[in-house]
Structure formats: structure tokens, C-alpha cells
Write a structure and sequence with these properties.
Elements lengths: L16 H20 L3 E2 L5 E3 H8 L4 H5 L3 E4 L2 E5 L4 H10 L9 E10 L11 E10 L4 H18 L5 E6 L3 H15 L8 H9 L13 H5 L10 H16 L5 E2 L13 E6 L8 E7 L3 H4 L7 E7 H11 L9 E7 L2 H16 L4 E3 L6 H10 L2 E7 L1 H6 L2 E5 L4 E5 L1 H9 L1
Parallel strand pairs: 1-5, 7-8, 12-13, 12-14
Antiparallel strand pairs: 2-4, 3-4, 5-6, 6-11, 7-9, 9-10, 10-11, 14-15, 15-16
The protein binds histidyl-adenosine monophosphate.
Histidyl-adenosine monophosphate binds next to β6, β10, β11 and α11.
Length: 419
Amino acid sequence: MAQPTFSTHVGMVDILPDEVGKWQALERIIHEEAKRFNFEEIRTPIMEQTELIARGVGQLTDIVSKEMFAFERGDDQYVLRPECTAPVARAFVEHHLDQRGGTQNLYYIGPMFRAEKPQKGRQRQFHQFGAEIIGADDPAADVDIIALMMAIYDRIGISNTTLKINSVGDPESRKAYTKALKDHFRPNLSELSQISQDRFEKNPLRILDSKEEEDQPYIKDAPIITDFLTEDTADHYARVKELLKELDIPFVEDPHLVRGLDYYTRTAFELISPDLGAQDALGGGGRYDLLIEEVGGQPTPAVGFASGIERLMIACEELGIPLAEEEMLDVYIVTLGEKARKWAVKHLPKLREAGLSASMDYIGRSIKAQMKDADRENARHVIIVGENELNEEKFVLRDMKASEEETYSFENILNQLVN
Ligand code: HAM
């Protein structure tokens, strides 16, 4: 085959017709579960102001420092959104959603963009579904967010996952912890990887996230944040764990869990799957009590999660979960001759109005080729129309699965297919 002239950018993937059924089935599940949990959908633009993401996600994060697709146009600085929490926070503040009363329980599905090195489960355009509860401080909100995330995976049949949780503290606990962490790493700083040495001054918590071999012995005995929590934050964390137990949501505590975005405070969590390879996080999230204020709103506590759809698809494939049923076409009209084609054009709408999916051949193929096409389209039934059938106003209805044929008037065919 000739080399195509154009192709997608690296790390960006077409979702072709054979794949789309799975995406639609998954999206249906997300909408249904979100509704059951009383969440409303929100759709924000694909592009945001660069400053919103820089401030929201954090200047020192990998996302902001090296993975943004950003450009200028006139005086405006655009960025393709790398995630949706900062955009949702912006929309909450911009449209005064607090005035709707109560907490805002919002969810979204859509493409995100990060200029990462592509590998299995890591793309430059990928898709997330996520949810945010804005306006609630109570541990019940943290647990409801986790329960919604888990409900979606349960419904799909992905159950061999591990929920890791931690508390990353409030600013006061973080200050004390950062000091202890730096005291721990300082004597061996030159032994650490270059990335970790770079993080030492700017963001020492992220050293805990390092995958570099030489860092592991030092990370292993590093102090843990849960020993530095203020009383309030420790109580909050204890209550989250208690509620998870009451709801029978299994979890493991990982005191070294830090997330790659800077806005987290208190609860942080990640859902890990053994079916994903190196990029093993199906989803993650946590509490971000300072973000709404950071993007210009009143102090408002909030908690949320987001999950990668491509990673979910990989897990489904590994586990043999089909997600979508095979698409079937109810009726395919096979025609012989011009008159029959005209008849088909007139009768297709009647089949469709009756709620059936229906199609025909548009390009004058032979009967044999049309039958093959009907098969390829997974047609349940074929109506065969030729000169004789038109004269007698009786048409052959073929049941493709049973390989049986009967002759009926069109009205009878319609009755047969609808009932
Ligand atoms: P995150 O951990 O950066 O969190 O991303 C959430 C999930 O998106 C990841 O666990 C992964 O499944 C998927 N993901 C991230 N990057 C890629 C990529 N390059 N290719 C494929 N999948 C990817 C957030 O985005 C936060 N906004 C979550 C949140 C919501 N926190 C509070 N509310």
C-alpha cells in the first residue's frame, strides 16, 4: 500500500468506526452512574488561558513546566487543557455556580492534552472522565467521589484494582513535613538521581514519586507525612478511612503517594491496575481546598477524581471485557434494477420511522455483492426486491441468522419486524 500523505501527530490517535461502539457504551455507563450519584455534566472549552493552568496545576509540575501545548494569538495565551479540574474551578468562579446553592456535583468526559513521551497507556491527546464536588469539606464528599469512581469500574467488570490512599496534608502539616523530608535527603543528596536533586529545593515531596533506581533506598526510609498531620487533618483522614470501611470499599494506605499536580490538600488517592504495565494508574484524584481561591474565588473546599479512558480500554482488553455488543442492522434492502432502487429509497424512511435501522445499496452492486454487504453490516433481515416482487407487491424477507425466507406484502414485513 502507498504511504499516506498525512498522518496524525505522534501520540494522537484516531478512534475508528470499529472502536466507537466501545466508547459509546462506556460513555453511556458514565452518564448513568453519574446520574445515580446526582452529578450534573459540565462541558468546558478545550483551550484555556495558559495562566489558569500554570497557577491551578502548579508552575513546578511536569505538566506545566514541560508538557503544555501552548501558543499565542494576539495578546492571548492559549493552552490545550491538560486536565479538567482547573477549568471546572474557573467555570465555577466565573459563573458564580455557588449561587445555585448547595454543593456543585459536576462531571465531565473529554479530550486532554499533555506533550508526554508516548508509550502504552500514555498519549498526547487522551480522554478522561472525571467528577468534582465543589463546596463540601466533609469526608463524606471524599468518599462519595471515590464511590462514584469505583461504581463505574464495578459496572464495567474491572475489579482487580487497588485503591491507594494518603493524606498530603494542609499547608501547615506540609511545611513541617517538607522540612523533615529535606533533613532526611540532605546528607545523601549527591547520591540521588539528577531529577530528584532538582526537586530537592523546589518540590521535595515529588522525590517520593521518583521511579529512579538509585533513589529507592532513600525513599524507603523517608519520613511519612501522616506523622506530621495537624489534628484536624488527621481527623479528616481517619474519618475518610472509616467511611471507606463502612462502605466496604477496600483500600491500602500508601504514605508515599504524592500526586503529579500541585493543588492537592488532605485526601489523595489513586486507582492502580495490574493489567496496565508501566502506566498503571487507571485514575486518581483528591481534595483541593485551596484551588478555587487560587483561581479567584472565595475559599471553597472541593474534591474530585479523573480517570483515563484509553487505560480503561486497555484493562478491558486484557480482561476480555467486550464493553459493547456487536452492532446489528435491522434491515438491508437488496435491489435488482433501477425501479427496485427507487422503491427502496421510498420505503427506507418507513422502516426507519417504525424505529428500525435500515440501509440499502447505493452504488448498483450485483445481488451477490449486496448480500455480502448485508452480511458485513450484520443485517438481521434482508428484503429482496426485483421486477417480479414489484409487480406482485410481495417481497422476500430473509432472516439472515436462520437462513429462512418468506414472502409478504410490505405492510406485513413491517408488522413482522416491529413485533
Ligand atoms: P491525573 O492523575 O493527572 O489527575 O490524571 C488522571 C488520569 O488520567 C490518570 O490516572 C490516567 O489514567 C489518565 N492520564 C493522565 N495522563 C495521561 C496520558 N498522557 N495518556 C493517557 N492517560 C493519561 C488529573 O488529571 C486530575 N485533574 C484528577 C482530579 C480531578 N483531581 C481532582 N479532581
